[in-house]
Every structure is written in C-alpha cells, then in structure tokens.
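Quick question: what would this complex look like in 3D?
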Amino acid sequence: MNDASTPGPAPDPIVEIDDLKVWFASRDGITRAVNGVSFELQRGETLGLVGESGCGKSVTAMTMLQLIPSPPSVIAGGSVRYNGANLLEYDEDRMRRIRGNEISMIFQDPMTSLNPVLTVGEQIAETAVLHRRLGRREARELAVEMLHKVNIPEPRRRAGEYPHQFSGGMRQRAMIAAALVCDPKVLIADEPTTALDVTIQAQIIELMLGLKREFGTSILLITHDLGVVAETCARVVVMYAGRKVEEARTADLFNAPLHPYTQGLLAATPRLSTAPGTRRADRPRLHEIPGMVPTLKGEQKGCSFAPRCPRASARCGEQAPQLQAHGDGHVVACWNVGSA
Amino acid sequence: MDAAPLLEVRDLKKHFPLERRPWGARRFVYAVDGISFTLGHGQTLGVVGESGCGKSTAAKAIMRLIEPTAGRVLLDGEDITAIPRTRFRPYRKRMQIVFQDPYASLNPRMSAGDIVGEALRNFGVGAEQRRARVEWLFDRVGLHRDAMRKYAHEFSGGQRQRLGIARALALEPALIVCDEPVSALDVSIQAQIINLLIDLQRELGVAYIFVAHDLAVVQHISDRVAVMYLGRFVEVGEGDRLFAEPLHPYTRALLSAVPQTRGSGAPPRTLLEGDVPSPVSPPSGCHFHPRCAQATERCRQQAPELRDVGGGYRVACWLHAG
C-alpha cells in the first residue's frame, strides 16, 4: 500500500502546470490566490499537493478543470497542459468532454457534490451516458458494477437509493465510483478524506490506491494532512500563500525538509507515538509557527513566508526567492537554504 | 488517585427520544449509554472516538448543558445532577466549555472585551475589576489588548479560539471541557492553541476534559485517555500505556488507522469493515462485536463491563476479562 518509495523512472508528464496565476478581483483589490505555480503530474503517479487553508491548492485544482467562475476569477497567466494541450484555451464545450471523462475530480464533502434528488445509481450512470453514449440500461448496469468495485455492499439495491441514505464513507465511495466510471486518466482528489473518521479514511485511501493500481489512474491528491501524503504519494508539492515553496519525493520531504515553512509544518504536527514510556511530562512542546497566513491582497514583495520565518534576512523581505534545485528532484524557494 | 477527585462521573446516560411513530414503541438514540470515570485537579482526560460515538454529548451532559437521562456527576464530591436548575448558577462558575467552532460560539454583536467580561458581569464583578481581569485574560491567551474593542468577525480562527479560551477562564474554573477545540484550525495554528492550553494548565491548575477525534493531538495533551464507541467507554487508562499497548480491538483498529508520517515502525494496519452502527438500535452484547475480528458468541450476547486490568487501567472486552 505504501508506494512512496517508487518514483517514476523517466519523466512522462500527463499534466503540466506552468506559471499558473489565478487572481480574484474584488472592490478592495486583487487577491493573488495562485501566484505563479508550476508542477507536473507524471503518468501513473500519485502527487500530493499540501498546504494550509487559503494557500491556493484547491484553486489550482479547480482551475485545471475551469471550475471557478470568471468573474470573479481571472486567469492572469500560465497554462495547464493535458497531454500537451492547454486546457485553459478550451471552450466550455470541449471542457465538458474532458471533465469526468479524461480528468475527474472528487471533493471533500460528498453530500454537497451529489445531487440529493437523483439516486446514486442514476448519478453514476449519468456520466457514462454522457461520455460513453451508453443506453440507460447499460449505464445502470455499469453503475452497479462500479458500486461493487468501490466495495459497497448490496450494490444493486444501493444504486436505487438516494445520497442521504448513505453514510459519509459510503457517499465518498459513491463519488469515487462516479469519478472513475469513464476510466479517466487523471483523478483530482480535493481533501477526499478530510470529512471522514480515521477508520473510514483508512478504507477510502486503501480503495483509492487499489483502484489506481487497477486502472493506472494518475492522482493529484490535495490535502492538509501530512500523514495521508506520507502513506499515499510518491512526490509532494508544498504550497504557501499562492506559491510553490518546495517539491520533493515524499521520503526526502519528510526526512530532510528544506523550506522553513515545511520544517515548521512538520514540527507543528503532533505525531502519534506508539512507543512505550513517552510520559506526557517528557513530551516536548509543539513547534509553533508564529503569526498567521498573510492576506494575499495586493502586490507581494519578497518571500511571503518571511514575516513568520525564523531564518528571514533583509533580502527575504525585498526579493522573492526563485525555486532552486537541491539534489535529485528536490526544489525549494528559499534564500537561506544551504546557509543554515 | 486523590482522596477527593475534582470530578466523578457515575454511569452517566443520555438517551434522546425519537419522534413516536403512530404504532410501535418509543425509540431512543442511545447517545451516551453509561460512562464512568474520575478526573483529578489539574489533570487532563482525553476522550476519543469517531463521529456519533457520543463524546460531545457526554461532554455537554457532564456540564448539564443538556440534562443527563441517568447517572451522577460529582464535582468536588457534591452531586451536581441533583441540584435544581434555579440554584445551579454557582456551579457553572466552576466548569466552563470551549467549543469547536469559535465563530458560532461568539456573539457577533458583542465586542471581544464584552464577550470575555460578560460572565464576570453576570457574577457581579464591578466594572473596574472586570476591566483589569479582562486585560489580564487577553494578555494571558496572547491577544492584544487593543483587540478588546473588536468584534468576532475581525479575528482569525486561531484568535477566535483564544477568545473562547479567555472567556472560559474568566471565572477561574476548576474544569474546562474542550469540545474539539482545535479541529477547525490549521496545523500551525493548532500547535499554538495546544501549547497555550498546556501552559494555562501548568500555571492555573485547571483540569481539562479534552474531546477530540485526532488521536495524536489527544495523546499530546492528555494524562489519561478514554476511547468511546457507540455511547460507551471501551478502554480508559494512562495515555502512554493506552497508545503503546492498546488492549481493546477497537482501540487497536483506531490507532492503526491513523496515517503515519514515519511509516516504518507502525504496526500492520487492521482495516475495520463497514461503518459505525446506528445508536438507535445498537448491536446486542458488546457494541463493537459486528466489526470485531475476534468476536465470540459471548460478545454477541453479553456486554462486557469496564474492568480494571491492573493499575487502574480499564478495558471493556471479554478477551481481557479474566
């Protein structure tokens, strides 16, 4: 289940995001939600996209499928290439043929993304009717088969039920079934387990990895949970305040994080310790990242983490650091890496 | 355990009646179905469990924010469940609560200073003294004194939770019930709040009941931990023992489900099948038996009691009954 140790051999990107800029215009200024983000999703890999609320990870993902209404959003630059073609140039008609067919997305809250007045079976079948031009009956059979694949007991009976009759974990399974019914090449999973209990989360993660092995889907997994990333992803992109600050293989990121933000994030996360004899009194204080995430309104000068950074120098406040390579596949945007 | 614990809870139950159907018997949600524990001064009891296990209901029933159906709650040896509502106010002073969503629990039309000072006013503290106390509280929880004039919407999530903590501390309670106080916060802010709670406990000697679903957070902050499943405690004991050598099959499954950032040392995962059953018609015998790989006929028929397996460590499982 842990495929974190198998980085892809030669780069073979299925999705390439290059210098993506997504801004939101409002009366009190421009919010630069995504401010020049680039990364590649390799064919067949699971890539983690992590960061805290408001770092731009969901906006990045939604932009990939043109799911954010414009206005208020403005794509201020960059490209999202899928198999070489820039999706940002697609009109709504062509985009529809991509969504759910080539690239699928699942969301955090399955209750709000499932239609309450359609049966679960109908919703899964709908995608197949649209993209595969299947007949109603065929599509319905396929829906039952998909529900079976995502381990829903009594799939035939369940297909005729409505989302509110499903538990949270089952709804997320149904969403995954709907997302995978057309065998998409890419699955974007936006906090797919955040609303779930840990035991159900473990089931869903297991399911996603199993389906990935079966269908060879490339997965972009967006999450704030570093534990989930450690268990599922081969590589990770860390975002902060609309920018990518670090990218590395999962093992490298956890063993030797380079960016002060990544280091802080890891140190601030309480770790479950199953070793005996860790008395509460002996436990070290959690590391705090002082202050809070900056507002993304207006022009940003310098590194956006500088105000909270223990290693910030005068230069950090003046000039935004560029991404630089530090070893195999490990890039970081920080002036002070190597100097500490 | 001390001679007189701060809090003693005995067989506490909260059953919510469901709407009666035209025919058929009255049905109940057995949200809390008989929990017992003690908590010493300045100690922290962590309560963990999945959604719907009854942990928040238990927290509220202990404080009588909702009336328990049965059972006793003793605060410093005095049975507070027997006290009439009209004379309950002095006891409120001794126990306070911090909620998960700091936004929903702060009045949007009151300034931050008034929110924190309201309880003091209710208990007749004069304006002068009140101001001094509120200032002290703001300092203590790491909020700027200028923020006293601001309103809840002007604060970030972490600051709002600081405000909630300041309000809870205003009357110098002996016990604060924290109901998922950090689960709505980002990791970096969560660490700030956890450290603050620990510092305040060291300084002021306040006891916590810390209800949360995040096991790592609970481990970090708790002296003792109770694992709850479908309205009952299945395992209660010292945190370091519970996390290192869990005895109940549910605790084991729960711990193994937590994704680890350092994978190598983790025990192999025990995946639980299915979902938590409904608390309206909980399974017979041990509530966990339908999902338990080691369940026997006895588990299906007879509910195991929480039994001391040595050193005050208690487990409700037939596997550990003898």
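Answer marked as accepted. Chain B has a mean pLDDT of 90.
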